[in-house]
Amino acid sequence: MKKLINDPNLVITEMLDGFVAAHSSSVKRVENTTVVARKNAPVSGKVGIVSGGGSGHEPAHAGYVGEGMLDAAVSGEVFTSPTPDQVFEAIKAVDSGKGVLLVIKNYTGDVMNFEMAAELAEAEGIQVDQVVVNDDVAVEDSSFTTGRRGVAGTVFVHKLAGAMAETGASLEEVKQTAEKVVQHVRTMGVALSPCIMPSSGEESFELGDKEIEMGIGIHGEPGIEKKPLVSADEITDEMVERILPELELNGNDEVAVMVNGMGATPEMELYIVNRKVHELLAEKSVTVSHTFVGEYMTSLEMAGCSITVLKVDDQLKELLDAPSQAPAFRI
Amino acid sequence: MKKLINDPNLVITEMLDGFVAAHSSSVKRVENTTVVARKNAPVSGKVGIVSGGGSGHEPAHAGYVGEGMLDAAVSGEVFTSPTPDQVFEAIKAVDSGKGVLLVIKNYTGDVMNFEMAAELAEAEGIQVDQVVVNDDVAVEDSSFTTGRRGVAGTVFVHKLAGAMAETGASLEEVKQTAEKVVQHVRTMGVALSPCIMPSSGEESFELGDKEIEMGIGIHGEPGIEKKPLVSADEITDEMVERILPELELNGNDEVAVMVNGMGATPEMELYIVNRKVHELLAEKSVTVSHTFVGEYMTSLEMAGCSITVLKVDDQLKELLDAPSQAPAFRI
Amino acid sequence: MNVNQTAAWITHYNQHLQDQKDYLTSLDRKIGDGDHGINMARGFAEAAKAVEAETFETSADVLKKAAMTVMSKVGGASGPLYGTALLKMSMAAKGKNVEGDVFAEMFEAAIDGIKQRGKAETGEKTMLDVWVPVLEEVKSSGFDAAIVEETAQKAMEATKDLTATKGRASYLKERSKGHLDPGAVSSYYLFVSLAEALKEEG
Amino acid sequence: MNVNQTAAWITHYNQHLQDQKDYLTSLDRKIGDGDHGINMARGFAEAAKAVEAETFETSADVLKKAAMTVMSKVGGASGPLYGTALLKMSMAAKGKNVEGDVFAEMFEAAIDGIKQRGKAETGEKTMLDVWVPVLEEVKSSGFDAAIVEETAQKAMEATKDLTATKGRASYLKERSKGHLDPGAVSSYYLFVSLAEALKEEG
Ligand SMILES: Nc1ncnc2c1ncn2[C@@H]1O[C@H](COP(=O)(O)OP(=O)(O)O)[C@@H](O)[C@H]1O
Ligand SMILES: Nc1ncnc2c1ncn2[C@@H]1O[C@H](COP(=O)(O)OP(=O)(O)O)[C@@H](O)[C@H]1O
Ligand SMILES: [Mg+2]
Ligand SMILES: [Mg+2]
Ligand SMILES: [Mg+2]
Ligand SMILES: [Mg+2]
Questions:
Q1: Residue D14 belongs to a domain with what CATH number?
Q2: Does A57 participate in catalysis according to the annotation?
Q3: Ligand 2: which residues within 6 Å by Cβ?
Q4: What is the mean pLDDT of residues B104-109?
Q5: Where does A185-320 sit in CATH, by number?
Q6: pTM for this structure?
Q7: How far is the CA of B25 from the CAs of A287, A317, B34, B286, in angstroms?
Q8: What would the mean pLDDT of A90-118 be, rounded to a whole number?
Q9: C118 and C166 Cβ atoms separated by less than 8 Å
Q10: ipTM of the assembly?
């Protein structure tokens, strides 16, 4: 493995130092934590929004801290949910008295750690609510399982709940917006190569020279199926065909699209995929209102991409257009 | 090689289709060309700015088309300068009568093709001037050679000349700004792994398991020296030490910094590098006014990064802060 | 189990985790995200340090210290679960001599905590598939450290044939079969460490 | 060289470029950016198509057509250079019977064009290091297709020992030594194709 790092044990703290150095005009590090918060947090009269998770998904999650999106992001170790005390620090740092919404991706670890933090916060009289994002259609959603994972669709939750909070809405209203996004957003991912954990230096899974891994998450886990590498159009087609039925789209619907690189995929390829996504949606007379192509929710240096489709209405479109100063999502 | 592509011969046109589909509210494709221009080009009363080069450097160059930056970008084949007729089409598409500035990266092919396009434009009575960017300190600048290459520093030229043009400045004034940037910007790059040309499917150079390539350009060319892989801090130190003497910085100076990923490097690592860059500059009492960390000028899926330092004064800082609507550089 | 043996339980466990770090991580790479050994080794190194740094009055105090440290240093799914298990065991041990039936009470409390936090049941290919057979054995035949270790080992090995329906391995569905559950293996070492600690003079 | 032979020159050259595409690209990968064969094969395929699609009056017309196509289809450094060379040869051939001294005039015009456009001189490890020796040979001993081919080959092979000071290979400085210059090799095939075309009936 080759990485531009110093000590594998220090990657998170050094990354956060570098992040805050780059964006010192708008963010701060909450002292002795792995929490990055808006410089002016808590913002009075505004519901605070806290997200986070394991590291290795950059620009998620610190990149989404800024006016119009998150108030704070908590970083765990690579692919490891942050601990309750860290999440608690984030909650305390952003609560202005109007309450705090936790954006949790649906992983056992994230859910447990964030819920424990919420318990700690409630014990101190802070009003906390949460939304669990589960947009990954590769995983079956059943009451006998842990349910679908939260992946790139989370970025839309940050954006739209963030924009809603900026209007001065209540915790309940912000949560409603977030829930609405969760209900209408679906994602599917594919890997062309595994990623490498800084700590172990090992590839997260094995993949043949002409093989792809369909239905991957964002933690280097193997996907749901190994398949032969085919053309970008065929891969895109298969991914979109898994997403659309879940959204029950018809010809009058509008959607926002995100083509998200997993880390090592050239932007050229993401745009080639985007071309096909638009073609497929046009065939179904679905209108695309917004398109985002780039790296939004990565898995270290994994090659591959995910496609996210969010069904939008007038409210969501307006919130999408609202300004955002987050370093990784400027509008 | 594994790539999310269809036909290697179609990567450029499919990428451009996908790009225009994503950003259709602000850009257009000039018909039957590889030129992406602002939707409202030519912008009356404004000097037009045209950049471009081979493809494979995404988001360069089309990602920098937008209010506050470029008026048009021309894409050649992968790592191959575009032909004069294509550049000429771009010039025609953006000339409002106030003249057009060509931003050329210093490669024999780019210089020749853009100059031939300028000759064609002048023959049709369009006022054209040019600036040649040569920020790469890995290459010696001597009158017996082709001189330093143009690499990531080009993005600063786009931004600052673009902001200047937006003020209604004359072609001469815009060119002066661009030249000022060229004089004060320096870059150094390192690769941890090669890239793979879509057409041949072959790695651009060979690199051992524990080896890095110092002083690489942006076309997958081998660098100036193979070295053992050391820590991020040591690599950063060596790169910064090659850049700073060329800028003759002293304790009162201010700089803008760009830590640019070559394609496959996790953002985590870029921020770790950024941390050290800031530390080194602080040691020399150099103030950092702006920092940009991300993928700005890539080399397909090469792993590695470049560090760019731009010495700024009040004028350049103001132009850096000016708004930009370019998809890959929103301010 | 006196207070010194309780501390030894934690320090022995940490030793095993450091030794098995790569093994546990490689198990997690197969059906999870390749961090279980790293998480556990990081967190229990801190827990062992915390336990060694202080003198404690009771076993419950030792377990509580370990629980709090694990909760804030492991992260992931295993952090809250092991943290909860240790905390519940501390609560069950409070004010008692830890011997005989108290072990069963502690394990039962831990299991309740794990189930409540993680919403899993036995048979879902998680650490519970080691804890629950151990509890059942202790309940039916009384506490015997050697037998606990043996039961844990068999139960751990049996997770190989299970299909995961909870935790990260559940995303693989049938593909999770044929691999040991990393959390079951780390739980097995917890019982190995307990047996070792009990063999020592207090 | 009649008009048919001139067209054959271009189509033969295209054939060689298609055959040598990977070879030229691999040479460019060593000391450049790995696209020379791809660029040349792409552009000359179009040039050959354009030349085959029309009937021309003169050799100059054929060369002009090829020049314009190459200029707009090759790109990179080689596009403008080969485009210029073909255009200048067309201009030199205009209104003349292409034979004897006219070849020298054509090559000289091409070389002037390449030098003006690329600002290189001989000895800098570029295509000029094939063109210039060929011109010198033709100037001193008159035009003989077989000897031109032989001279081109020797000159091409001699680029191996040169250190590049122009073009992309110059970034490697001394490390460029020991490798053939891709543009010199493609230029060699241009003279091979010329010799082949001249051997054919018009
Ligand atoms: N809901 C659950 N209930 C009980 N144990 C669980 C549950 N989810 C996961 N585990 C255990 O946690 C282990 C994984 O821990 P670890 O790898 O540290 O966390 P993560 O899955 O967040 O990366 C699994 O092997 C399993 O034994
Ligand atoms: N200034 C120059 N003068 C003459 N020939 C040159 C010059 N620069 C480059 N060349 C030739 O062009 C060849 C490279 O062409 P190609 O690979 O197609 O373009 P690029 O270098 O832009 O990728 C070199 O091998 C060399 O022979
Ligand atoms: Mg994990
Ligand atoms: Mg090239
Ligand atoms: Mg894990
Ligand atoms: Mg080349």
A1: 1.25.40.340
A2: yes
A3: B 80-81, 108-109; D 28, 32-33, 35-36, 39, 76-78, 81, 114, 118-120, 126-128, 166-168, 181-184
A4: 96
A5: 3.30.1180.20
A6: 0.95
A7: 14, 15, 18, 41
A8: 97
A9: yes
A10: 0.94
